[in-house]
Design brief:
The chain is α/β, with parallel strands linked by helices. The chain is built from 8 helices and 10 strands. Strands 1-2-3-4-5-6-7-8 form an 8-stranded parallel β-barrel, surrounded by 6 helices. Strands 9-10 form a two-stranded antiparallel ribbon.
């Protein structure tokens, strides 16, 4: 099944276009003031309109209240809410019920002990994002360019779709995919020339490296990477399902269809 590639922390139309044209499946937008990638609602509204129908839009928040969620949803019209703070299982359930959107929960990982909370989150969330533990003096929980030991996830038995993030770049994304068998990869600082400033060539290089890795080590439909029930073509809605035998994650949301970038389409043609 196809690997999901997410470019997070986008803040300009230029870099958003590069991500979309290069074949990104997901584009992420950050709403957390301490982050150098934080967006105003006005900018989010513009970028949300620009991306509509071209990729899955993900809104990233940290311990946001209901009013903040409402404002973000009104501006961006996201397909998924990514929560990256200390949200409890009860809070995740509340967010899903109130806003009718799938939720991706970020979980910081350093040692196997950090997976203890996974079963509780997996019972509520629609998708898990594994990220590196931030340093103790960090002002934000992610986007810091730090990696974690991917072998912690090597024998993970998780029925829920999951993605890997934390210090990924074009140089190491293939190894992260190989070790974890993740159904998706998420990059932010690894495609930046400086904090908060995305580099078009680095975006292209990351997506190209991820697609090359996917073609080099494909998994069967029953493997860990069974992250999507189909590989949508132009105008077909992607079904964000845990595996190919289950229904879409939520009946309340039907994410917009996406058109593949030229590079992705070319590589898929070669694979066939």
């Amino acid at each position: 099944m196809s690997l999901l590639v997410k470019i997070c922390g986008l803040s300009t139309r230029e870099t958003l276009d590069v991500a979309l044209q290069s074949g990104a499946d997901m584009v992420g937008f950050v709403f957390f003031p301490p982050s150098p990638r934080h967006l105003s609602l006005e900018v989010a509204r513009e970028l949300g309109r620009h991306a509509r129908g071209r990729a899955i839009k993900v809104a990233l928040t940290v311990d946001a209240d209901d009013a903040t969620f409402g404002n973000i949803i009104d501006a961006l019209r996201p397909d998924i809410l990514q929560v990256h703070g200390k949200e409890t299982n009860a809070r995740l359930r509340d967010i899903k019920q109130k806003f009718g959107l799938p939720v991706m929960k970020a979980l910081a990982v350093e040692t196997p002990a950090d997976l203890a909370a996974l079963s509780g989150y997996a019972a509520v969330a629609d998708r898990i994002l594994f990220d590196a533990h931030p340093p103790r003096d960090a002002t934000r929980p992610g986007g810091l360019g730090a990696t974690f030991d991917w072998h912690v996830l090597e024998k993970l038995d998780l029925k829920l779709p999951f993605m890997v993030s934390g210090g990924l770049s074009a140089a190491n994304v293939a190894e992260a995919i190989r070790v974890t068998g993740a159904g998706g990869v998420d990059v932010s600082s690894g495609v930046e020339s400086m904090p908060g400033v995305k580099d078009p060539e680095m975006i292209r290089a990351f997506i190209r490296a991820a697609r090359d890795a996917e073609l080099a080590s494909p998994l069967p439909a029953s493997g860990k990477r069974s992250d999507r029930s189909c590989d949508p073509g132009e105008g077909e809605p992607p079904h964000l399902s845990p595996n190919s035998r289950q229904e879409p994650l939520t009946s309340t949301v039907s994410p917009q269809g996406r058109g593949e970038g030229a590079e992705t389409a070319r590589r898929r043609g070669q694979k066939k």
